[in-house]
Amino acid sequence: APVHNVVQRRRLRPVLAFDADAAVLWVPALANSHLAYKEAARIALSADEAAVTIAGRAAIEGLSPAAKGGGAGPVRIVVALAAGHVLRKTITLPAAVEDNLAQALTYDLDRHTPFKSDEVNFDAIVVGRDPVKREIRVDWAAALKTIVEQVRRRAESWGASVVAVTPALPTGAAPLAGFVTAEQGMAL
Length: 188
Prior knowledge:
By secondary structure, the protein is an alpha/beta fold. The protein has helices at residues 2-11, 49-61, 101-107, 109-112, 145-157; strands spanning 15-18, 22-31, 34-44, 75-81, 87-94, 120-130, 135-144, 160-166. It is globular, with a radius of gyration of 18 Å.
């Protein structure tokens, strides 16, 4: 279950969600013994770059263990992409490819995206199995590498350590316009 543990840890990380106008920092919190996310900061991206960077750094520093009297080190976060930056679809495939899902999808990438394989990051998770038809259904998401690197660099310029870039907000985050929720462990 090491993969499950990675997904669980990722679900407990703060999430920085970028859209066209703002970046919203969500932090995990327990509410009625359920994991939920609460908004910790909202950074307007329309201001000048220096002001955006100052606001972003302040938001990330507010989460650091040192700010809470703990140890030093960068804050480890997950970055969520807005739906407009993500190609997403459900794909039905032969069950035989499940063990080599990433490889099978790489071969078939030109059917699912107008971009070349070296231009996109993608991930997929199995969301259903049909043993009779010997098929699997996968939730597939892809984003341009340039977009992924842009949001990663911006978050890192604010002092964060980016552990994953996901195609959606985590389950338990209040809905934001332009975002899909329930990332289900996918990482771009």
